[in-house]
Amino acid sequence: MMHLFINALAASAGGGLTYVRNVLPHLEAQSDLKVTIALNSGLREEFRSFSKVEFLTPQISHAGRFWYEQSALPDLIRGCRADVLLSTGNFALRKSPVPQILLSRNSLYTSADFYRDLRSRHEYRAWLDTHLRALIAKRSIHWADITVAPSEAFAAELRRWTGAPVLAIHHGFDQENFVSDSSPLGPEVEEKLRVAEPSLKLLFVSHYNYYRNFETLIRALPMLRDQMADRRVKLLLTCNLVAGKNPGAYRPEAAAELVKKLGVSDMVVELGAIPYRQLHHVYSHADVYVTPAYTETFAHPLVEAMASGVPVIASDLPVHQEICGAAAAYFPRFSAEALAGTLAQIARSPETSRRMAAVGVGRASQFSWKTHVEKILDLCRALLDSKPSEVRI
Fold first, then answer.
1. Per DSSP, which regions of 248-299 are E strands?
2. Are residues 181 and 118 in the same domain?
3. Structurally, how many domains does the chain consist of?
4. Which residues pair with 36 in a beta bridge?
5. How far apart are CA 137 and CA 157, in angstroms?
6. Element (DSSP H or E) covering residue 315
7. Contact 162, 135 (CB under 8 A)
8. Dist. CA 133–CA 127, nearest whole Å
9. Which residue in 104, 282, 309, 377 has a CA-CA distance of 20 to 30 Å to 138?
10. Which DSSP category does 199 fall into?
11. Which residues lie across from 55 on neighbouring strands?
12. How much is the pLDDT for 13?
């Protein structure tokens, strides 16, 4: 029986937490696999139903995570007699006691747009912190035996950045699991959705951060209102543009001020954070899914939107094009004018919207967490059966 140790201490929100939520059920279902996972202590309650997985939940701060991983995790891995390490948080162990697979999925470290954005906001501390983390992430790709990226577009970017081989294995999607929770949304959220119902409802699923490029989307709203004079438009956000209401240190005040300055407060509906298990309810209310992100590695909400039968309009990133293909319409990522025009064009053509939605449902079915886990486990077995240098990636 193979024993897999997963370092998921970095999983706290967004894609990292989505990953853990979706792979653990498939790992637990493996009869010939033992799993031990190091997880943020605040998340243990969410995973209480997993009886076959051993959880390690050290009390460590976000700032101290890297040092804890490098100093304490090797002994924990040896102590539980694990065979393979899966590092999910972009940073590898420099001296792993067992063969190591690194999941690298943070495109901020390689994004020139993100560094420019931070400078324009005078976020110099964040700029320096990102550069320092990028150095560790870059070295990590060389420390690991195998590095895996969630898309071919991002894998190619990592190869250019490091000169090292990187394998692409798509993240997955589980439609049955995604819609399994029938519990209703909170009454406040339900009321906001009810009030928005007669409008053209645009949905953007993300907590506030800079790289999802909220400001370009906000700038597109008054242009879209002018082009759609015969129909009201509402933008549904799964966050609040209020300081302290979002994970991380991103400051939403500038975006909130832009909403007021452009006079589009009546168009923006801040639903607040929606539990992942209830997101399918929100997608069912949307007419169009939109993302103006200027960097990405996979973008889970695109697959969720396609699976929900919602047409997608996305910025023209290679990752977005890889994930959505012909199921989405694309626009230059910093052009509010192009975004507004594309939205208006799709909104005026129900036939185009239906075609995109149908293509999207088929496209979403190509992503499978079961397949993803099988490929990761195949890599684990290959590492155990071969010398690291002999594993073909």
1. 268-270, 288-291
2. no
3. 2
4. 5, 54
5. 13
6. strand 312-315
7. no
8. 10
9. 377
10. S
11. 37
12. 64
The encoded tokens of residue 56 equal: 């390690």
Residues 85, 37, single domain; the answer is: yes
* CATH number of the domain encompassing residue 16: 3.40.50.2000
Say if residue 235 is in the same domain as residue 358. yes
H-run or E-run covering 8: strand 2-8
Helix (H) or strand (E) holding 233, with range, is: strand 233-237
The answer to whether 314 and 324 are in contact (CB under 8 A) is yes
Q: What DSSP character marks residue 186? A: P
The span from the CA of 377 to the CA of 371, in Å, is 10
User: What is d(CA 2, CA 5) in angstroms, rounded to the nearest whole number?
Assistant: 10
Q: How far apart are CA 301 and CA 324, in angstroms?
A: 11
Say how far apart CA 107 and CA 66 lie, in whole Å. Answer: 19
Residues 189 and 105 in one domain: no
Tokens of 38: 């190091």
Widest CA span of the chain, in angstroms? 67
Q: Residue 138 and residue 14: Cα distance in Å, rounded?
A: 22
Task: Report pTM.
Answer: 0.92
Could you report the per-residue pLDDT of 27-86, keeping only the tens digit for each? 999 989 999 999 988 788 888 888 889 999 888 877 788 888 999 999 999 999 999 999
Q: What are phi and psi of 56, to 5 degrees?
A: -115, 120
First to last CA, the chain: 24
Q: Report the distance separating Cα 316 and Cα 334, nearest Å.
A: 10
